[in-house]
Amino acid sequence: MIEKNKFKIFDAHMHTIGIFLPRNMSLIEYMDQFNIEKAILTTTNRAARPSDYVDKGEKEEEYGDTNNKMLKAFENYKKTMPKGQLDHQDVINLSKKHPDRFYKFFWFNPNMSQDQENDDYRTLENHFDNGFYGVKLHPILHLIKVPRDVLKLASLLEERNKILFLHSYPKVTFFNGMFTKDIVKLAKSFPDLKIIVGHAGYAMEYAMELGMNLKRYENIYFETSCSIPYALFSLIKAVGHERILFGSDSPITNPAQIEIDKILCLPISKEQKQDIFYYNSEKIIQK
C-alpha cells in the first residue's frame, strides 16, 4: 500500500495550464492540494494538440501503407510547431503574483533563421535579466539536434549560470531520439552548465542507459516525470538519489498525484524521498 504523502514538494517540471488542471481551480490551488510548495514553471505550446499528430479524417486509402501514415502524421506534427519564441507572459504573471512559489524557465526555440537570431537571443537575455532561472528545450517539438544546434545557447547559459532543462526521449518511428552520447558531448563541452535530463525513466532500458553513461558527469541531473518506478529505482542505484529531481509535468501530462505516488512507492528511505521531492531541486536552483 502506498503511503500518504507527508512530504513537502519542489516540482522541477510544471506548466501554467493543462488538461489535468480542473476548471475553476487556480494553479496555486492545484499545487496546494498536493503539498507542492515550489515549482520550476514554464509555458506550454497552446497550438499543439494530440489530434494534430494523426489523420484529419482522410480515408484509409489516402494514407496507403504504414510508412505513408507516419509521413502524414509527421507532416501534421510539423504544422503545430510555433515560429519564433513562445509568449511567456503567463509565467511572468503567475510568478509576480506568487514570487516565493515559482522559478521561471524560458521555453526556447534555437531553430531559427540568421535574421531572427539576434532578436531571439536578445529576447532570451531580457528574460534572464527579469529573473528567469533557465531554459527548457524540446528537441522533438522544434526538430533540433543536441548538441549541434544548441552550442551557442549552452555557452550563454553556462556564462550566465543558468540551467538547461532537456526534454529527453528515446528513438521512435519518425524521430531519431536523443541518445546518451549526445548528452555526454554537451556535458563534456560545458562542464559548468547544469543540465536537467527530463523524463529520465521512460523505460527501464532507457533509464539504465542514462545512468551508466551519465553517472560520471556531476553537472547532470535526472527529472522523474512520465517515468516508471523501477526505472527511477535503477537510476537511483546508478547515480545516487542526490541527483534525482521530482517533476510532475503537470497539469499537462499527468495528474500530480500519479507522479507523487511513483516516488512514494520506491523502496528507499524517507530521507531520500524528501531529498528527491524537495531538497535536490532547491540545491540546484541555489547553486
Q: Which strand order do you get reading across the main beta sheet?
A: 1-2-3-4-5-6-7-8
At the first level of CATH, the class is Alpha Beta
Class from helix and strand fractions: alpha/beta
At CATH level 2, the architecture is: Alpha-Beta Barrel
Helix content: 40-55%
CATH topology: TIM Barrel
Q: What is the overall silhouette?
A: globular
Total helical elements: 12
> How many structural domains in the coordinates?
1
Through-space gap between termini:
37 Å
Order of helices and strands: EHEHHHEHEHHEHEHEHEHH
Query: Could you name the ranges where pLDDT drops below 50 across 5 or more consecutive residues?
Result: none
Give the full name of the CATH homologous superfamily. Answer: Metal-dependent hydrolases
Task: Evaluate the radius of gyration.
Answer: 19 Å
Average per-residue pLDDT, rounded, comes to: 88
Describe this structure as you would to a colleague.
It is a single chain. By secondary structure, the protein is an alpha/beta fold. It has a single domain, classed as Metal-dependent hydrolases (TIM Barrel, Alpha-Beta Barrel), CATH 3.20.20.140. 42% of the residues lie in helices and 14% in strands. The chain has twelve helices and eight strands. The chain has an eight-stranded parallel β-sheet with strand order 1-2-3-4-5-6-7-8. Helix 8 packs parallel to helix 9 and helix 9 runs parallel beside helix 10. The longest helix has 17 residues. The protein is globular, with a radius of gyration of 19 Å. The chain starts with 8 loop residues before the first strand and ends with a helix.
